[in-house]
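Input/output pair, single chain:
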Amino acid sequence: MEREKDYWYNSANVITNLIIITILFIMICSQSFAANGDNSFKLITSMINHNITYVLILIYFVLLKFKIGKKYFNYLNLFLLVLYLISTITSLLTLFQSFTLSTVFDFIINFVFLVYFSHTMFRDTSYWKEYRLGDSPFNEFDNDWYFYVVVILGVLSLCINLISVAEIKGVILAILDCIYVVLFGRYVYLYRDYLDSHKISINNSGNFDEIKDNIKESINKVNDIIVDTTDKIVDDTKEISKKLNDNNEKDKKDSKNNKKKGDNK
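Output:
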């Protein structure tokens, strides 16, 4: 069945506007909770320091509203990809330092966004063919799958954050973060849907089966090496044991012969 295009959630312009509004609310709310009477200069400095990621994402979406953003759309996507790569690495390091459900979901969400964004926004660029992204195993997952995963992860992360927070400000920020995750996922979903409808780089073959076969082959090789090594160790052990037994038998015979010679004397 053909997807209806007249709903607000199927409009890239509406989704982009909602993302901008949501980010502004996140920045304003987080800083209003932390302001505590600071002057304007300190408030702006604090906002930049604590919300640098959201500030950069906001710049990305605001630029898309102007001709310069549409002209350098691919470069902006590359910029956002690098930003999410940094966020993914940072969340991974945070996961090692503090292993909690919240840090686990933060890393998974950033990683899924990194994969989803890179395998969508670069399909209409030279990078797609140059780096052979069409052969990436992540192409085996379709657009709906990615979006549903993003929504589920966002809701689960919201539930975890709501359990851990004790103040109303934490609840508000957790809800806003969840809304941003879902809206950003929808933004990528709509662009991927646009590429699919226009038949742009749609002939992509994931290679999960090839990777699985390579892993299986590697495991089999390791197993063969382990078996061969084990058999060799067993054979060597048997040989050593046989030599020890032969030496013991020889020692016993020599001891008996020496005893008989002593008795004869």
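The chain has ten helices and no strands. The mean pLDDT is 79.
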